[in-house]
C-alpha cells in the first residue's frame, strides 16, 4: 500500500476525522475501506477470517516478497501460490499479489529449475487422520558435498506432510536404522507402517529388526514402481529443487542448507490438507525471520496471567479439540483432493507422457532449453533443469515432402526470408546469438530443431579458435588417446546435451521432445 494512503487511513482510524488536504477521491476511498481496517499498537491491520493481517507499505511489501521467496529459511523459491498463501496469513498490501507474481515469474533460479509438466496415473493411498501413523521413507542420491555427504535419507508423514531428513555419507542399513530411531521414533513415536522401496539399505536385517522391536510394519513397494510410494518420491524432488535453487557457490555445501529447506517446506500450505505441516503438528504457524524484523503483533491474544487453573484447563481442552478437528478436516481434504486429481487425470487423453509444447517464438525472444540430461544421469540430481538464456536469432519454417532428402532441404535454408543478421548487442547476456530452425515436418519424418551459434561469417573464427585450443592441449598432453578423451569431454554436458560454446561447437541438434520456455527478465 502507498505510504500516503496508509498514513491517511491510519489518521482517520485513530481520530475518526479526515486528514486535511486530501482529495475527494481519497476521501471516498477512506469512507468505503475503513470498515476493513483497525489500528493496534500504532500499526494498521486488516480484518480477515478472525485473523488480523498487518498492513505493509510499499517498501515493507517488497522486503516481505524478497524474504518469503528468496530467503533460504523463510522462502526457498516456492511457486507463486504457495508463497502468496504463506504471506497472506499474516500480511496485506494492495498490489502485493501482482508484485509477487512478477517476482516469481522473473526469478532466475525458478525459471532455470522449473519442472516440466508430466501426467502420470494416480493411485491414491488411504490416509489416516492421526499424524505419524503412516509414513514413507526413501534415499536420495546427491552430488558429493565438500564435507563428503552423498545421500539424503528422508521420511514424511502422509497425514501432516511433515518431513524429516538427514544428509549422510553412506546409504547403508546402519544409517537407515539410526535415522528411523532418532528422527522418527524418538521424535514422533513409532508409526504403524513405513512404506519403503526395495533398495539394499532398507532390506537388511538391522532395519527389519528395529521395526520389529517397535512393532512397525515395513511395507515394500512394487519392483520398478516408484509411484507406489509417490508421496516421498515427490518430496525428494521438492528437496532437490530447493537445494538446486541455492546460489552456485553454495551448491557444493548443500548439506548445510538442508535444514533451511526442510523448514521452508514445513511452513508451506499444502494443497491437499489446506494447512501447513507445521500448523497440523503444533497448531500454530511458524515464526519466520521477517516476522522478527517486523516485530509482528498480528496475533492478538488474551492476557493469560490472570487465568485460574480451571480456566486454563478449559482453554487447553478447547485447543486440543480444535487441533483434532483441524487434523480430521485435513484428512478429509486429502481424500477430496485425491478424488479430484484422479478425475482430472482420467479426463485427459494423452498420446505420450511427454510432448513438445512449442510456443510461437519470434526473433529476439529470450528462451531457455530443457536439459534432458538430468533424466538419464545420476550426476544431474542438482543440475539446472533449463539451460540458457539464449536469444532467438533465426526462425526457419520448411514444409518438406516425405520423399525429399533431408540434407537437400538443409542446404536450401540460406535463401530463407526469415534470416537476419546476428551482429547485435545482446545486452546483459554474455552468450552469443543463436538461430532456432523450426522444421515443420510430416508425421513420417522426425522433427528436428537445430540451434546454430553465429552465422557462416563467424564459423571460420570458431574453427580457428578450436584448433588453437587443441594445439594448447597438445603442448601439455602428449598421449593421443588422452588428448582425444579431453577434447571429447569438452563437447559434452553430462552425456547427452552438448555444450553451446563458441570454443567447442557450431551446431546442436534437438529431438522432437525438446522443450522450450520463455525466459523473463530479472527484476529481483
UniProtKB/TrEMBL annotation:
Record domain Integrase catalytic: where: 127-285
Transmembrane regions: none
Superkingdom assignment: Eukaryota
GO CC entries: nucleus
One MF term in the entry's GO annotations: nucleic acid binding
Signal peptide interval: none
Entry's Gene Ontology BP terms: DNA integration
Alphabetized PROSITE patterns for the sequence: INTEGRASE
Cross-referenced Gene3D superfamilies: 1.10.340.70, Ribonuclease H-like superfamily/Ribonuclease H
SUPFAM superfamilies the record matches: Ribonuclease H-like
Protein name: Integrase catalytic domain-containing protein
Organism taxonomic ancestry: Eukaryota, Fungi, Fungi incertae sedis, Mucoromycota, Mucoromycotina
